[in-house]
Each structure stands twice: as structure tokens, then as C-alpha cells.
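INTERNAL AUDIT FORM
Audit reference: QA-55
Scope: verify that the stored structure record matches its stored sequence.
Auditor: D.O.
Record contents follow.
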Amino acid sequence: MSHSNSTQLVVAITGASSGIGAATARVLAERGAKVVLGARRLKRLEDLATQIRAGDGVADTRVLDVTQHASVENFVAETIALHGRIDVLVNNAGVMPLSRMDMLQVEEWKRTMDVNVMGVLYGIAAALPHMQSQGSGHIINVASIGAHRSYPGAGVYCASKFAVWAISDALRQELVEENIRVTTVSPGTTESELAEHISDPAAAEAMRAFRATTISPEAIAEAIAYAIAQPAEVSISELVVRPTRSPD
């Protein structure tokens, strides 16, 4: 993040205990941002914050459950209490329990929507009023290549990511006069824990094959850093980041 405003940006990241969230925290902190890390697993967050501080970065941690509106509101409020503002919110928390529709995994469907869609909406609801009052801000929503096409066994997951894409694009258009940027980042297959939560053995096996070619979470973190680093008058509204060798 090279432009002069990039240092000392206050960045709140959901789902920061592993994968893309953790990588984004490390990359942004290295470049001078003050990061506030939210997730359910406090020990993982504390370990990450310790690493960041060892490199002279600024990191704070908060327990966060994105399925609870009050928890997300508190996360953003505590970010502002720490640093006086919130410049960037990275809505990254997500789950990917895949199964065929005829397995009728209704509870998994509900959790997918609660985390992937309501979690993003709660983040927007918490951060947007502060960004509007300070006259600037950047909301980054992590979607997926599943926001652009659907796959067997991934219908509900893809639906949740289509929703993130739709929410982001409407929000971007609503905020064009307000100096608030909105970016959707759609990762292709990325090394993460997401595929470890697939209950359907056939879907899990298919996903192992699908994920034979992956990129590192740092690649997505670099894309997020790129979007943030643009001059204020430039909005990177969408980034699709996939492995070079990925046909999908």
C-alpha cells in the first residue's frame, strides 16, 4: 500500500483466525495498517496478534460471532474505541458446508446463510454509519468464484456468495457520492479450512479433486491490499483471483 493514506489505516477483519483473514491481517499490518482481528477462536487470534506485534505491527483481538448482530456491532464499536475510526472493514468470515440438495441439510443451509450473508449484512450495518459520519471508508466483501457460477453440491454456498456479490454491487452504487468504496473479492480455490467442514462424503471427495490446484491465502490478501492502496478517487469494485491453472 504505497500511497500516503495507506499507513495507519484502521482495518477491521472478520474471520481473522485462519486462511484469508489471517493472511490479510499480516499483509496489511506489515504495510502500516492498524488491524483489529475478529473471530470465534480467541487463542488463534492472540497467536496471530503476537506474530504481528513481533514485527512491530499494531494488532488487537476481539471475540466475534458474525451470526449475532450485537456481536458485530460490538466489534466495530470496539475498533472505533481503540483507534477513533474505522477505515476498512473486511467482511471475510465464511463457511462452506457442501452437499447435494437431496440430502436436505436444512441446518447447514441456514448456517451458510447466517454466516455468509447475514454476517456480511451485519458488518455493513455496523460500519456504514461510522464511515458516513467520517466521510470516507472502504467495505471489502469476500465472495468466491461461486458468486459467478454454481456447481453441483454447492448450490446453497454459491447462492450465499451470489448474494454477497449482489449486496456489494448495490451498496457500491448507493455510496458513489459519499467517498465510500465497496470491493468484492472473489477467490478461486485457496488453501483454507473451508473444505474441512463438508459433511457429504461425495461432495468432500469432489472438493478435494477440485482443490488439487490452489493458491495461497496471501495471494488474496495481496489483492485486498491492492484494492485498498488505490487513490481515493479509484474504486476497484471487483477482483476475481484464481489459480493460473484453474479452468473454473
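Auditor finding: record pair retrieved intact. The CA atoms of residues 170 and 182 lie 10 Å apart.
Action required: none
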